[in-house]
Design brief:
This protein is of the alpha+beta class. The protein has seven helices and 32 strands.
Length: about 600
């Protein structure tokens, strides 16, 4: 997946440009003496959108002085009786607000604008704002409106209406749907108490909590995303309204004890977000990184590990090496994803990655692991997606003291591997070789890497994958429900290509040992996985785990599966482990947890 840092910079640029570029709106009119609950209305789109309003009154409840969306929140201390109409709104000033302080009573005039974080093509809901404002402070030092509690009792269990279209114009039903409940509080000061962390602190001083601690909980404190109908309604993003330096370093399972209070915002990267002027106290659960068991002498251990854009300039080699040696117990075969070329993101035509791999294998040996060998195929420059100039690819590491690689020359960036029969058994024509590299399924995406290994006299064919990312999909908080997942189209083609290649191997040798693994970028219950599995061709072995333990990635507070190991029917006696060393931690060295399969060929 693309790094959040690069996509966030792009989004901030879009936000700066689009703040004054609202949705398609009616011809502007003029409205006097409008209250905040009037301009918010009882749907997601203000009935005053595009109109000028004058002398909107409220108490300043928070001031944002950073980022591209600077301004302040105001809230009416005298609410109406309609639970669907919010009493708060954001006043967008574009630069650091001057002459206004928290607790000031103000009158604000300006244009009511529906700002869409990320732009209208993102599918995100809009945020009602007053833009191009003028304001007058009428008094100072006023009592702030009491915060509205968000609790397990106030948030409905149903997530949202699903009209197979936009929910923008539907009347809000805050006692029926969670998204409507949050929307009815947009811009208001809200409060959560004693919440459990379900998404670790990220580099942007954000974390995720849940107000429903029992909701699909796993044993490590996270909230599992187990189906498209399991959105986990208690999740809420927390940001700081103050200095990021004061933001706590939280891991999944920790608790923010006491109260966390601030305006409820909506942003591109988290949907509904509590921008905290008061943060609870972090109480650590002391979550530990997992260590899997060592394979026995007769077990072949095969792992997959996305090392997140690893290049020679990174300072994570020792940590990755320690993870492979200690936490993964030195698997016999490791499929690595996101190995970058020798100069990383520098875009000068370099595609070789021998320096990256030498540095990693040296670090593994220094950490007490085996002297791994590797096999890989350099991609054609800028043809496999990922970070521009990085030329990421999959790589096989293997321990030559335990397993042998069957080398068959001729594999390159563009030549497809095929299946043949040798001595009555299925064999690859190229090893390593790339599956169907010219197919549209793999345009601007990583090509699957196939390799043939032998272990204790038995052949094992391994296919390393890194399918197309979910970039471009609509979020769970999209105004379009259910959200559109356009990125699936390419993954479905990729899954079919790998499935068909595996089926060809099994047609040649019914009992062949085949493993397809890697960053599939999709869930174990997804259509992508179903296509990849086919009818008896492959099976995703993460489904051998209890549902509460099926995850390799944490996104917006949802613990979910992106990394998988799929096995052919002949692989019966096996054990599977999702080794949680990264995704739940604020100091992660990758955003993915490695997966490992041990079996008797």
């Amino acid at each position: 997946m693309p790094s959040k840092s690069s996509s966030r910079l792009a989004a901030l640029t879009v936000a700066a440009v689009c703040t004054a570029a609202p949705l398609a709106l009616p011809t502007p009119a003029h409205a006097d003496s409008v209250r905040i609950h009037d301009l918010q209305g009882d749907t997601r789109i203000s009935p005053y959108a595009g109109q000028q309003v004058t002398d909107v009154t409220g108490i300043v409840t928070g001031i944002r002085t950073y980022g591209s969306s600077r301004g302040f929140w105001i809230q009416d201390p005298n609410p109406d009786t309609d639970p669907a109409t919010s009493e708060g709104v954001f006043v967008y000033t574009g630069s650091t607000p001057k002459g206004v302080t928290k607790g000031d009573a103000v009158t604000v005039s300006g244009t009511v604008t529906e700002y869409v974080p990320g732009g209208t093509s993102s599918g995100n809901q809009s945020l009602t704002e007053i833009t191009r404002p003028t304001f007058t402070v009428t008094s100072s030092g006023n009592a702030l409106p009491e915060p509205t509690p968000i609790t397990s009792r106030t948030v409905p269990s149903a997530y949202t209406a699903t009209p197979n279209g936009s929910i923008n114009d539907l009347p809000l039903r805050p006692s029926t749907y969670a998204l409507d409940h949050y929307e009815s509080l947009e811009g208001m000061t809200v409060q959560v108490s004693d919440t459990r962390v379900v998404g670790a602190t990220d580099p942007y001083a954000e974390l995720w909590v849940t107000v429903k601690p029992w909701e699909h909980r796993n044993r490590r404190g996270g909230t599992v995303y187990g189906s498209y109908d399991s959105q986990n309604t208690g999740r809420l993003q927390i940001q700081s309204l103050g200095s990021a330096a004061d933001f706590p370093d939280a891991n999944v399972g920790d608790t923010l004890t006491g109260t966390t209070t601030g305006p409820l915002d909506f942003n591109q990267y988290g949907g509904y977000t509590l921008v905290a002027s008061e943060l609870g106290t972090l109480e650590s659960r002391n979550l530990q990184r997992e260590t899997t068991r060592k394979q026995t002498s007769r077990e072949l251990a095969v792992a997959t590990y996305n090392v997140e854009n690893l290049d020679p300039t990174d300072d994570t080699f020792a940590a990755h090496a320690a993870a492979i040696v200690n936490n993964l117990q030195s698997p016999d075969i490791v499929s690595l994803e996101e190995i970058q070329d020798n100069n990383g993101a520098t875009d000068d035509g370099t595609v070789a990655a021998d320096q990256t791999l030498t540095k990693l294998t040296d670090a593994i040996e220094a950490a007490g692991g085996p002297r791994y060998e590797w096999r890989a195929i350099d991609p054609a420059d800028k043809s496999d997606g990922g970070e521009p100039g990085g030329n990421i690819r999959q790589v096989f590491l293997f321990n030559p003291a335990r397993v042998s690689f069957v080398d068959r020359p001729g594999g390159d960036a563009t030549t497809p591997v095929d299946v043949t029969k040798t001595d009555g058994k299925a064999a690859l024509t190229l090893s390593p070789g790339r599956i169907d590299p010219a197919s549209e399924a793999f345009t601007n995406s990583r090509k699957p890497l196939a390799g043939e290994f032998t272990f204790r006299g038995r052949t094992v064919i391994v296919i390393a994958n890194h399918f197309a990312s979910k970039g471009g999909d609509q979020s769970l908080t999209s105004h379009h429900q259910p959200p559109s997942r356009t990125s699936e189209t390419q993954r479905h083609l990729q899954a079919k290509a790998v499935h068909d290649f595996t089926a060809k191997i099994l047609k040649t040798q019914k009992n062949a040992n085949v493993i397809a693994l890697g960053d599939i970028n999709d869930f174990e219950f997804s259509e992508t996985t179903k296509i990849l599995e086919g009818k008896g061709t492959l099976w995703s072995a993460i489904k051998s785990l209890p549902r509460s333990e099926r995850y390799s990635y944490v996104y917006q507070g949802n613990s979910q599966v992106l990394d998988q190991i799929l096995i052919s029917p002949s692989i019966r006696r096996f054990s599977y482990d999702s080794v949680h060393i990264n995704a739940e931690f604020h100091d992660q060295i990758s955003d993915h947890d490695p997966q490992i399969l041990r079996f008797h060929p």
